[in-house]
Amino acid sequence: MYTLVYFPGLAARVEVTRMLLEAKTIPYKLIGAEESDFPTFPFYQLPIIKYTDAATGQPRVLAQSWAIVRYLARKHDLMPDGGEEAAALADSYSESIRELLDSYWEIAWNPWTTPATDPAKLPKLIAFRDGEKVKKFIGAQERILAQNGDGNGNGFYFGSKLTFVELALYFAMEELNKGFAQLGDEKPPVFSAETAPLLWKVHVAVSQDPNIKAYKASDRYPTKW
Length: 225
Description:
Shape: globular
InterPro entries: Glutathione-S-Trfase_C-like, Glutathione-S-Trfase_C_sf, Glutathione_S-Trfase_N, GST_C, GST_superfamily, Thioredoxin-like_sf
Distance between the termini: 25 Å
Radius of gyration: 18 Å
Number of strands: 4
GO molecular function, one term: glutathione transferase activity
Organism: Catenaria anguillulae PL171
Domain GST C-terminal: 83-225
Domain GST N-terminal: 1-80
Strand order of the largest sheet: 2-1-3-4
Helix content: 40-55%
CATH class of the largest domain: Mainly Alpha
C-alpha cells in the first residue's frame, strides 16, 4: 500500500496523485504531518509518497508532486502507448499543465497565510484569469487535442487511453474554475464546452470514468481546493 503525506482534506499538489491511484483502484492512505516532521522529508516539502520497493523489499520515499505522478503513471499503466516518443509528448503536455497551475498558485497562495479571496490578491487573480497565459494555454492544448479523434478531439490525448495527462488536465480545469468562481465578478467559467470545447471533452471523459465518479462521490474526495 502507498502512503501519501500531505495536508488532509486539501487537494492542491497531491490531487493528481490521488486521482491516478483512484483511477486504478490502488489502495493508499493519506496522512498529515507535524511541523517537526519536515526536516525528515526530502527537500523539506510535501507531498511525499512512501512505499515498499517490490524488488528489494526496502522502504522508499519519493518527493516532488510531478515526479510522484510520473512514477505512478509508469508503474500502473497510465502512460500512453507508443514507447519513449509518446512518453516524451505526455511529459511535455503535462509540463504545460503544471506551469499553468504553478502560475495560478503563485498568486492565490502568496502569501499562503491569506486566502485567495483576500482583496489584495483579487486584482492579480482577475488579471491572470483574463490574461494571455490562460488564453495561450487553451489555444495550445486545443490544437494538440484536435490531432486526436479525426480533428475534433475525443476526450483523450493518445488514442482512447486514459493517461495521467487527462487526469492532470481535469484537475487543472477544476482548480482554476473553482478558484475563479470566488472572485465575485460573476464571469462565466474559463473552462467550459463553449470556451474550450476539446479540453471540455477531456473533462467529460474523466468525470465519466466509473472509478473517478466513485471517488468524487466518496468521503475521500477533498473538501478544500
